[in-house]
Amino acid sequence: MLVAGTTGSGKSELLRTLVLGLAASSGPGELAFILVDFKGGATLAPLRVLPHVQLFISDLDAAAGERLLELLGNELRRREAFLARYAATDHRDYIRSRTPADPPLPKLVVLIDEFRVFAAELPDALERVVHIATVGRSLGIHLVLSTQRPAGTVSAPLRANIGSVIALRTIGEAESIDLIGSADASRLEAGTPGMAFVRRGGGAPVKFRARVNSRPSVPASLKAYGGNLGEVLFCETLGVAGPNLGPRDLEPSTALQPEDTEEELAVVVERIANSHAGAEPAQNPFSAALPEQLTAIGRAVLRQVPPDQGVIGLLDRPRLPQASALVFDPRTTSRLLVCGLPASGSERVPELLMHAISRGRFTLPTLLLDGNGTFTGLRGHPAVAGYFGPGDVWGINELLLQLGDLEAMGPVVLVVCGLGGWAQTLESSVFMHLEARLSAFARTATDLGNALVICGDRELGSSRAASLCETRWYFPRGAGPEILMGWPRMRKVPPLVGRGVQFGPTEPERGTEFQLLDSPASLPLPKERTPQTWPYSLRLPQLLSPSQLPPVPSTRTASGILADATDTDGAPALSVGLCGPDNRTFVWSPGQCGLILGHAGSGKATLLEHLAVLAAPETGHTVLLGPNDALPTRIEEFLQLHPQASRVLLSRADVRLAQASRSIEVLLGAGMQVVLSAEPGPRLLFELGLSSVVRDQRSFLVLDPLHGADADPSGFRLPPSTTSIKGRAMVLDRGTLRQIQCVNSLP
After folding, report:
1. In this structure, what are the phi and psi dihedrals at residue 578, rounded to the nearest 5 degrees?
2. Which pLDDT does position 253 carry in this prediction?
3. Rounded distance between C-alpha atoms, residue 397 and residue 213, angstroms
């Protein structure tokens, strides 16, 4: 049915009357409604409380319109399967043969007010509406389309499926002729709303008067005048049950106000609803739209998932009668891409995921790479085993070592945010190394029980690791055409914070709409402490004494610790301090000759004093030679003084280059390990005569470098540093430049 009429013709009242009349004469098991009101619900909202109304949509936009069409498409398929199951040819056949034991299948009336706007929002919707009108009639689905001006909106194929037309007052004769085949509708009086013509099929139009205000009757005022019509004898209101006898007031009654009309409409709606109170309504197959804000998850949804899984939002699957749970489970979602601009809701994802996987108990640690510094508030979060911000460049090097030995690291959730920020912070070679490690992590995540989550916006298009993610969440709020063109073709969703579209191997072609929780507050973390077995990534301390050094492990671990008492070439190894990722003891392996470089106050003397007491009996004694001690020139004389010496520590070799050069040559020739300290200089190795001896960068330990030139003798390329920490050192370990904290406090 098509209902058309210009503003003020009574179209809204006619639609109300139509719904109320049908609802009054049929129970909710026989008749159901979908009411679509573009005008903010002003016309049809008062009717939504009727038990017949299975779905009400107001403020229709492109997203809501597309969802409505999808709901109706699913209902067509459901009814076809339903009728086939009961061997019925059509809806009428099923009603005729239905027994009391069979479920009800009510007629469904879909009423769309302001259909012109609906068609404008979805230009491709007319074809789908035609399909619903063509197929739906036999399935018990009927359309009522209302518009002010049908020209240009109602296409020829749709007109062919319109059985009835109601034309209220139209603007011009052409429009009236188009609707009912005559110009009569254009001649209806503007001061008499509700006058209309109805035309069924090809029959002649019939004039009728629609009930005004959707009320059982309209109260009127009766006034009695005297003979000269100048004096009011009495004034009386004629109520809905009939006139009141006798004069009530000598003053004229006030005009009926709009709020009075709404009150009487509410009374009628309530009366109809009460009349069907004992009737069993049909099953509602339509799920409500997702809420604009989601403060908590309802129990009905939580019952759908195991108790140890965290629900972080709601999924809108129109084929189901209610929303389903949006769950993040690393066992089934090992690679997740999260794409959205700031303030789109994508910034909620990292913390929600942490709470989701830790809801019942702490199961997996999270390593958070925050390239833009957006999530500094999550540093120290109980579910975060390691946080890497823009200033934690050395922490990234530690992470690269961890990612190089994934089996030793154990299961972990790796959340990467702000790849563009990392590209600016890290050197190009380090960033390329990070990208390669992330790609390897993604490829092995499923087999090793890990999970990778990459969050960002524009920069994700060039990431190899991001391209490996099968599950993808897109948050379109704020995204312009230049961004959307790089995303997959997705369903239209409202531009709300936290509203997104999920893509995955089992999702529809255009994705599934979801709404994130507003906050992880409704997903409290367990009260017990996090497991100590997690692969933590901690910040280095600024003050370190020898008693704080943990025991050295028995094997080389993923963190790069050499646990053997000797280096690979037989020289004793040295426990000098702590290293990442979890502040384990770092064992320096300089070989036969080690150089500790650093400016005054960097901690050279303290470190040498610590090394002087390290030697175990089985590896020989250590001899510390200070700046004022005589340096050995003959090995025989030195061994007479120190018969069990195996290591010599030579302090400030740069203040007596000639003597130090001769002494180093003598000691190395005797097979001893020599560790010397000096302030950096461009010709230091040449002046000490070590250019041909020291060829391995592992032999260098650079203390507290503040400038790139501080590491020139070693050949290290150091990033600029703005802070000075005594004992903080750079050292090369297994091809990776690492930052360690050396002992800088002695008892």
Report:
1. -115, 150
2. 36
3. 75
Least confident of 180-194, 247-261, 523-537, 550-564: 247-261
DSSP state of 364: -
Region 649-675: mean pLDDT is: 92
Distance CA 503, CA 494 (A): 17
- Map tokens 């050295």 to a residue: 552
Look at 559 and 728; give whichever has higher pLDDT.
Answer: 728
Query: 330: Cβ–Cβ under 8 A, 6 or more apart, which residues?
Result: 357, 364, 411, 413, 449, 450, 451
- 335 near 469, Cβ under 8 Å? yes
User: Which pLDDT band holds residue 625 (cuts at 50, 70, 90)?
Assistant: very high
Radius of gyration, CA atoms only, the chain: 41
3-class SS of residue 572: strand
Kindly give the pairing relationship between strand 584-588 and strand 242-243: unpaired
Number of separate helices (H) and strands (E) present in the chain? 20, 30
pLDDT 10s digits, 421-442: 999 888 888 899 999 999 999 9
Q: Are 457 and 341 in contact (CB under 8 A)?
A: yes
H-helix or E-strand spanning residue 268 = helix 258-275
Q: How confident is the model at residue 652 (pLDDT cuts 50, 70, 90)?
A: very high
Share the mean pLDDT of the chain. Answer: 85
The residues with which 216 forms a beta bridge, in sequence order, are none
Sign of CA dihedral 635, 638, 642, 646: negative
- The average pLDDT across 132-153 equals 88
Q: Which tokens sit at 647?
A: 């290591």
Contacts of 104 (CB under 8 A, 6+ apart): 29, 30, 98, 280, 282
The one-letter amino acid code at 343 reads A
Q: DSSP letter for 1, please.
A: -
Confidence label for 450 from pLDDT (cuts 50, 70 and 90): very high
Q: What are phi and psi of 99, to 5 degrees?
A: -100, 165
The DSSP result for 654-683, as a single string, is GGSHHHHHHHHHHHHHTT-EEEEEE---TT
Q: State the first-to-last Cα distance of the chain, in angstroms, to the nearest integer.
A: 94
- CB-count burial class (<10 Å; 0-12, 13-18, 19+) for 618: exposed
| Per-residue pLDDT at 732 | 87
pLDDT at 280 over 90: no
Q: How far apart are CA 311 and CA 353, in angstroms?
A: 9
Kindly give the pairing relationship between strand 584-588 and strand 574-579: antiparallel
Of 670, 656, 727, 737, nearest to 700 by C-alpha is 737
What's the Cα-to-Cα distance from 48 to each of 36, 269, 482, rounded to whole Å?
A: 10, 9, 41
68-77, 81-90, 225-234, 489-498: which range is least confident on average? Answer: 225-234
Exposure string over 7-33, b if 16+ CB within 10 A, otherwise e: eebbbbbbbbbbbbebbeebbbbbbbb
Tokens read off for 382:
């109980």
Q: Is the pLDDT of residue 238 over 70?
A: no
H or E segment to which residue 740 belongs = strand 736-742
What value, to the nearest 5°, has the Cα angle with vertex 738 and ends 735 and 742? Answer: 130
Residue 556 has pLDDT above 70, yes or no: no
Name the token pair of 671: 């097979």
Q: Is 690 helix (H, G, I), strand (E, B) or coil?
A: coil
Instruction: Give the residue ranges of DSSP H helices in 26-123.
Output: 62-85, 91-97, 115-121
Identify the sign of the CA torsion 146, 148, 153, 156: positive
Q: Which helix (H) or strand (E) holds 369?
A: strand 366-370
Question: Could you give the 3-state DSSP secondary structure of residue 638?
Answer: helix
| pLDDT tens profile 379-389 | 989 999 999 99
Range list of β-strands (E), 106-231:
107-113, 141-147, 164-167, 195-200, 206-209, 220-225
The mean per-residue pLDDT over the stretch 683-711 comes to: 85
Best CA proximity match to 468, nearest among 486, 491, 451, 449: 451
Reply yes or no on whether the pLDDT at 720 is more than 70. Answer: no
DSSP-derived secondary structure for 394-441? HHHHHHHHHHTTHHHH-S-EEEEE-HHHHHHHS-HHHHHHHHHHHHHH
